[in-house]
Specification:
Layout: H1 3-42
C-alpha cells in the first residue's frame, strides 16, 4: 500500500470513529431527555397541608391548589 493510500485509510477510520462518537452522544442526549419527560409525567406529588387562605405574615399558601 502506498503512503497516500495508508493516509487515506487512516483518515477514513478517524472520520468513521468521529461520526460514531457524535451519533452515540446524540443518542445519549435524546435518551436522557426522553427519560426526563417520562419521569416528569409519572411523578405526581401528593397533596401537602398548607394554609388555604391568606393569613399571617410568615405563612405560605399555594397560588393555585390542585387538592
Amino acid at each position: 500500500m502506498s503512503a497516500t493510500g495508508a493516509a487515506k485509510l487512516l483518515g477514513m477510520r478517524w472520520r468513521t470513529v468521529a461520526l460514531l462518537a457524535v451519533g452515540a452522544g446524540l443518542a445519549v442526549l435524546i435518551a436522557a431527555n426522553a427519560h426526563l419527560v417520562y419521569v416528569a409525567f409519572q411523578s405526581q406529588p401528593d397533596c401537602v397541608p398548607h394554609t388555604k387562605s391568606a393569613g399571617e405574615p410568615g405563612t405560605f399558601r399555594a397560588a393555585r391548589s390542585a387538592c
